[in-house]
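RETRY 2/3 - previous attempt timed out on the joint model. Re-submitting the same 570-residue input unchanged.
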Amino acid sequence: MDRVCVEKSMTDMIDMRNVSYRYEEDGRDVLQNINLTVHTGEFVCVLGHNGCGKSTLAKLMNGLFQPTAGTVLVSGMDTRSENDIFRVRACAGMVFQNPDNQTVATVVEEDVAFGPENIGVPQKELRDRVDRALAAVGMSAYAKKEPHRLSGGQKQRVAIAGVLAMEPKLLILDEATAMLDPRGREEVLSTVKKLNREKQITVVWITHFMEETVEADRLLIMDQGRICLEGTPRELFAHTEDLRALKLETPPAAQIAQTLREHGIDVPNDILTPEELTDALWAFRSKT
Amino acid sequence: MGISIQNLTHVYHPGSPFAVDAVHDVDLEISDGEYVCVIGHTGSGKSTLVQHLNGLLRATSADKMEIEGIDLLQKKPDWRALRRRVGMVFQYPEYQLFEQTVFDDIAFGPKNMGVEGDELTAAVRDSMRLVGLPEETEQMSPFELSGGQRRRAAIAGVLSMRPRVLVLDEPIAGLDPTGKQDILRVIDAYHSKTRATIIMISHNMDDIVSVAGRVIVMHEGRKVLDGSPEDVFSDPDRILALGLGLPTVSRIVREMNARGDHIPASVCRKEDLVRFLTEGRA
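RETRY 2/3 succeeded.
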């Protein structure tokens, strides 16, 4: 069968040009004139307060919504093209917040097989794809289990496997860790980072947890339907005041570092992770 | 009056092949006005445990179940009184808003309990003030509110009953940082204003150490740790072995100590860390 994603002589995974979106014809634009390019292999995080348009943006990225104005190209395919829409969705896999709403079968491997079976992947290849997808998320041992008996983190990894079995080039995760406990969050984040690193799958990661974004290639911050700030985590998290105005904050380690500095403890002002803060404190303690 | 529970066990689908021992032999004494956080990974039994507090679930077996002066083991406990005294805020409570207006939604509980007229209006407006909903939202549809406002409206609906015990199951899940802080402030305001008992399930360890006076850790249906945040997090390896996360400060302290430093493991908040580093004491 044809490769699900059409290879084009371009390296952009997502190309949004002058994109606006409104839910009702006479309603207001919930997304306004978005111009965004996501490069193949990139790990992009999207931040923004509740209601800023993050989820709408995500749904435009795999053709669940079509733009009211402008164009969205996914791997070179226009999401408004009826001929391409199924290829767009196979190419851009999406994982949502609630693990319980994303399960369709009563056995893990059947759940993972659901997508590819639907697009007519032959039996032998199907077996292969399911096995590879479960291995990629570290869930092979659970292939015959019932999804409802898994933990939240495990369910989300099965949901990701279901998407991987479609052999996507792009993973869009819309607050996929919001309902998980700390271990579940860690499982899902490290799984997705690994897929990005080892399989060069492009990732769009939407979250309210600042600490999940510190290793991203790029952060996008949204407000009122626009992308209002864009840069590397270190660039953006330096703007504490701007973040607060946007109802966001710096990651926990950065907040601790700032409090320490306010009390005269000399640690650098660009700390983002607990590891960096530990190194800085270790240096501080060795001096004093 | 508080909460006094002895040997609470809850089995889902008892006697069937699907029987699940969700809570096992839990003793729990909570005094009036405590602020308790319950933690544990998915499936540890924490939600099952707290759902006994307002009679949503009944114990499969228990030696004592006294909640705010009501004995739940007697033949016909006064459920109405119990539910008036113990308010429950579920996960994603904004999905349970159903009335035409914000006012009616918040009024639903007290109205059911027979409160009417000016008293009802006062109860609703007080609750709206407590959660920081502007008065002009009163006649709006809940669906016109923002995500964070909807969550606060849902919490106002529970606070309008003036519960003496407020139980919240992950009240900040899915909110942006500001929305999260707003909710924590609302809970704190209700706690300090009414001296109600707060019992909150949360996964966010950094928030827990800053708000809770006491932390209860559930694991495989049992209560495995119970104490002040300093006590509970002073054994970080145990917490990690239970599949839980550490507060960011505890993570850093643990790593520093692994490298040879000697910071007391009870240092779990940023204020503690500042004090230790500047004054040399925990």
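DSSP finds ten helices and ten strands in chain A. Closing ticket.
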